[in-house]
Amino acid sequence: MLRILAALAIGALLAVGASVAVVNVASPAPTPPNQPLYNYGTR
Amino acid sequence: MGPALLGAGLAVLALGPALGWGFVLRYDLVFVPDPPLLPDSGGFPRAVPSDLVAALLSRVLPGELVQKGLLVAIFVLAASGAAALVPPERRIGRLVAAVFYAWNVYLAQRLLLGQWALLLGVAGLPWAVRAVGAAGRERWLGRGHGWWRGGWRQWWRLVVALVPAAVGGFQAMLVTALTLAPIAVARRRAAVTGVTLGVLSLPWLVPALTSGAVTDPAGVDAFAARADGPFGVLGSLLSLGGVWNAEAGVPGQESWWLAAGRLALALTGLYGYARMRAEERPQWWGGLAVAAGAGFGVACLGAFAPGVLKWLIGAWAGFGPLRDGQAYLAPLVLVAAVGLGSLLRSGAPAVVGLLAPVLVLPTFAWGASGRLEAVAYPQEWRAVQRIVNADPAPGALLSLPWGAHRAFAWNGGRVTLDPAAKMFARRVVRDDTLLVGLPDGGRLRVRGEDPRNRLSPAGVRYVLVAGTENRFPFDRRGWTPVHQGRELTLWRR
Known about the structure:
The structure holds two protein chains of two kinds. By secondary structure, chain A is mainly alpha-helical. Chain A is 56% helix and 0% strand. Chain B has a five-stranded mixed sheet. Chain B has a two-stranded antiparallel sheet with strand order 1-2. A two-stranded antiparallel ribbon of chain B has the order 4-5. In chain B, β7 (434-437) and β8 (443-446) form a beta hairpin. In chain B, α1 (2-15) runs parallel beside α4 (91-102), α4 runs antiparallel to α15 (330-343) and α12 packs across α15. Chain A binds chain B through residues 3-4, 7-8, 10-11, 14-15, 17-22, 24-26, 31-43, and chain B through 27, 113, 222, 226, 244-248, 251-252, 255, 257-258, 261, 347-349, 351-352, 355-356, 358-360, 362-363, 365, 369, 401, 403-409, 412-415, 434-439, 443-444, 446, 466-470.
């Protein structure tokens, strides 16, 4: 029983965290610039 | 069948808009319509034979479908392979391993870096582990064993299991070799496994050794693992992330909450692997653990002992593939997946284990929140491709502006390797110098690998200028414009 409750609690926490992350990332992003040249990423 | 379907479902969830009609273009993930079978490329054979396989498949199917098929195959192969390493009676445990191996930050970051060829090998890794570590005492291909009895059959299974890595090319094969070596030694199958890996590596090994490609030791600083969350480099690597490129991070992954969840999940998987009882441990258990440790060591090398790696690369350019050491975390990812599948076998913990990989990396869904999306090449790209590829006259094509990467507005500003490099059936002279932005605003230059990429008018028949900004000034006397469009200008002489 304790294992089930612990699993449910962890699952609920993870679900809340995931929801918050998705909402944060889903906020509008600025229009990307048209740059023909670009870095191979940034460290 | 269940894990494969689960993998397909995860592919749909992860790729989302990337499965629409068109090509997904992001960093190294560059597919083009009607790719030439044998483009004249020099330098280190990074896309050999993956580009050839994609070109061959594009003779049968539209290139758009080929790309999507390969991307979905990564998820299906990964999920079904990880599940196959968990005993069949643990039905939920198999699915837990499948979900974790197909949905983790390692796979997500490498996909956002466009390294589909590496991921093909990573997806095939569990199958290769299974083939080399298969039970049975018989020597492979040894005397006294009829080929129909088992030895040959097992060896053939290994060959089939290695096909994804062989298609992927050098990085996929190196990661696979690192993983299989300790298992093969422990199972006394090192010779056969080594020869098989060697033969399947010939398509890229031969050109690599004869290309005269150079490796800039500066790449060690550029491509070393980095902290992609609040737990530093070590914590990032233990969470199975830490890719060098900040722009290959999954959106929102750096939040302490998600980072803590990923670290806890990975450590739980490692714990589950370590605590497997002796009678539960498969034949490959120890070998895979050693491979995971070795891979983790390679991943740490660039970050914590860059001098050693620079010295090695300075001594022999063949050590160049170790610069991007985080790629070698793949066996550790597999260990964590199998460990989770072993630990979370049934009941509510297993259900949480099934969902947890997605919940600690939720923004990987829907094309990593829009980072992966299918787009159509503007018509003028097809127009210049037709003009150049229909011309029987010899001569190279010079691609300008002089830079390796582009960020087109029609591709949502996503950074991609210059598509011209893969589009034409003639040598494409281009800048293969890699520029890596630094946190302080500076830029690190990693010298190109192909010594033939030097700006010289000799032997150039076409000049392709892309973009409306940063036009490259060149003396146009003697050159005729054969295409002038909104974005592209093609000159011939």
